[in-house]
Write a structure and sequence with these properties.
Elements lengths: L16 H17 L10 E3 H7 L5 H6 L2 E3 L5 E4 L4 H10 L10 E10 L11 E10 L4 H18 L4 E7 L3 H15 L8 H9 L14 H4 L10 H16 L5 E2 L11 E9 L9 E7 L3 H4 L7 E7 H10 L12 E5 L2 H16 L4 E3 L6 H10 L4 E5 L1 H6 L1 E6 L5 E5 L3 H8 L2
Parallel strand pairs: 6-7, 11-12, 11-13
Antiparallel strand pairs: 1-3, 2-3, 4-5, 5-10, 6-8, 8-9, 9-10, 13-14, 14-15
Helix pairs in contact: 1-5, 2-4, 5-9
The structure holds adenosine-5'-triphosphate and magnesium ion (MG).
Adenosine-5'-triphosphate (ATP) binds next to β5, β9, β10 and α11.
Length: 423
């Protein structure tokens, strides 16, 4: 019998995982300087939280959730996204009572969606995201967008496009909804079965349909931006004003509606414009969700956030041929000649590691020549060979593998020698 990873999931092996750690480092650094400390919520929640928090008419809730009944008969779902859980935590821990609003948090972890797997689309993927809950200041929208852009820029991407739109408020969406129904209803037979359901449930989502994207009625549909009331229009202008002040370029796309039901006002996506990135060009999606916290039982607490997957960020880095500087070099390999030397090597390795010097030794009983080859394969910066004469002399030659230089160092000086030379 042979086993394989489940479809849509992947093993991330040493050699590849360093790239993940590198970009995660960029994210951790930025969430620190922007003050979005990490929050960790469970990997599964009650199904109803996502039905309410993500929205019943979304693709996520309708066909992508990993839902199961636990042994107590409760319906639970592996989290498909982060915002619903964080909003739940915000309410559950009464963070709305915190004197400093908005509450700003970030998260980094796996999400689960039963999707048709393809390049850039997985069933388990890792999302990094932030949320700022408890403020409807347009300046926070701009801050959140800037933070997302910085993640990509500081990871080394150059070919980026920021697309923004406003979905307006409840009143705007109601008026626009009716206009959409009037527009699509006479021709709905030409659309896919999902869109036929969307017409009544949430006609806005027809604009986001991947199947009917090319239908000319989609392009000619009434634009939300034409329906913005004064308050929504002013809010959108202010967001743009802050983006301009931050020197962030953007394109306004009136058809950008995004997949989640709870979005309103600001919505945005960051795309890769790199050639060869493939069909899926969206790296990051985000937006404002005033009303979500109330939907799940909290007081009025307007929020904004974004989510991006590490998988797509790494694909974009590949498309732009950016090499990440992953600095995982091995400082020292200890080659041993016999059992007595091995005993000393084990002791040495322990004391080096205690001082932060990375060290490795042979555990496969290989001959010295094979050990030297291993040291080369591992790209050790230094190699020392321990044998009976070294033990007798209590000194060892340390070889710099890059320059080929060797120096004899007494045992008691080896740690200091490596600490001063290893950089
Ligand atoms: P798409 O239109 O690509 O399906 P979405 O609207 O479902 O995206 P969101 O739910 O907003 O995406 O998720 C935000 C980000 O998470 C996406 O921009 C993308 O970077 C990432 N993402 C979403 N689904 C997947 C997936 N199945 N595999 C990898 N990354 C994903
Ligand atoms: Mg999706």
């Amino acid at each position: 019998m042979s086993f394989k990873v489940p479809r849509g999931t992947q093993d991330i092996l040493p050699g590849e995982v360093e790239k993940w750690q590198k970009v995660e480092g960029v994210m951790r650094h930025l969430t620190n300087v922007y003050r979005y400390p990490e929050i960790r919520t469970p990997m599964f929640e009650s199904t109803e939280l996502f039905q309410r928090g993500v929205g019943d008419s979304t693709d996520i809730v309708q066909k992508e959730m990993y839902t199961f009944e636990d042994r107590g008969g409760r319906s639970m779902t592996l989290r498909p996204e982060g915002t619903a859980s964080i909003s739940r935590a915000y309410v559950e821990h009464k963070m709305f009572g915190n004197p400093d609003q908005p509450v700003k948090v970030s998260y980094l972890g796996p999400m689960f969606r039963y999707e048709r797997s393809q390049k850039g689309r997985y069933r388990q993927f890792v999302q990094f995201g932030v949320e700022a809950i408890g403020s409807k200041d347009p300046a926070i929208d701009a801050e959140v967008i800037e933070l997302a852009m910085r993640v990509y820029q500081e990871s080394g991407l150059k070919h980026l496009k920021l697309v923004i739109n406003s979905l307006g408020d409840q009143e705007v969406r109601q008026a626009h909804r009716q206009a959409l129904i009037d527009h699509f209803a006479p021709h709905i037979g030409e659309f896919c079965s999902d869109c036929q359901k969307r017409l009544e449930q949430n006609p806005l989502r027809i604009l986001d349909c991947k199947v009917d994207a090319e239908n000319p009625l989609t392009a000619s549909a009434p634009k939300l931006t034409d329906y913005l009331n004064e308050e929504s229009a002013t809010y959108f202008e202010q967001v743009k004003m802050y983006l301009d002040a931050l020197g962030i370029d953007y394109v306004v796309d009136p058809n950008l509606v995004r997949g989640l039901d709870y979005y309103n006002h600001t919505t945005f996506e960051i795309m890769s414009t790199a050639e060869g990135f493939g069909a899926i060009t969206t790296l990051c999606g985000g937006g404002r969700y005033n009303g979500l916290v109330e939907e799940i039982g909290g007081p009025e607490s307007p929020g904004i956030g974004f989510a991006m997957s590490i998988e797509r960020l790494l694909l974009a880095l590949e498309a732009e041929e950016v090499t990440l500087d992953t600095e995982d070099a091995l400082d020292l390999y200890i080659v041993t000649m016999d059992d007595a030397a091995k005993l000393k090597a084990v002791e040495f390795a322990s004391s080096f590691r205690a001082r932060g010097i990375s060290a490795d030794i042979d555990y496969a009983g290989r001959k010295m020549k094979a050990q030297m080859k291993a040291a080369n394969r591992l790209e050790a910066k230094y190699v020392m060979v321990l044998g009976s004469s070294e033990l007798e002399e209590q000194a060892v030659n340390i070889k710099n593998m890059e320059t080929g230089d060797q120096e004899k160092v007494p045992f008691h000086d080896v740690v200091n020698y490596l600490l001063t030379h290893k950089q």
